[in-house]
Amino acid sequence: MAYLPVFIDIKDKECLVIGGGRIALNKVRVLLDFEGTVRCVAREFSDALMELAKGNDNLILEEREYTTEDLDRSYLVIAATDRGEVNAEVSKYCREHRIPVNAVDDKENCGFIFSSYLKEQNLVAAFSSSGNSPLLTQYLRDREREIMTPEMGQLNERLGAMRDEVMQKYGSEAERRAVYRAVLEEWLSGQA
After folding, report:
1. Half-sphere exposure of residue 7, counting CA atoms within 13 Å on the CB side?
2. Of the four listed, 4, 72, 152, 175, which is most buried by Cβ atoms within 10 Å?
């Protein structure tokens, strides 16, 4: 089964990560990269996670067991403990209550999965194997890195800044596309 690629806005939304180890750390970093407010609940936290939390107002660590109230108040949940039964329990509750949930490395208990991604400012490219092969998606991401440079992120910001003016000035989609294509081609010719 292929997963629908969807980009969601998590800026300033409460995202819950249950777990405090290496895998939880990886998921916390992704959520912070997309400006989520992350609450991490675990019996104990790795040194790396505690270091990441220092001075970071968007990351709250709570050293305790999770509760269903934690789940209920979250925009999305990541179950990242080293205890499969806990991850399955979290997943079951979330799915029953229509809370998006990811149980790390347990495809059957995921309502969504994380993709391998590249991010340059607001330009994001993502790759998914529907959980079949993280190695393959990482390979594809690394190959795409040659094309998706910081300059490409700057180009995206430039095109975004032009958007309102282009929409007002050009009535048809074909005309707007031609303007954007000209800017892209000019940029690409300067990259050669």
Report:
1. 10
2. 152
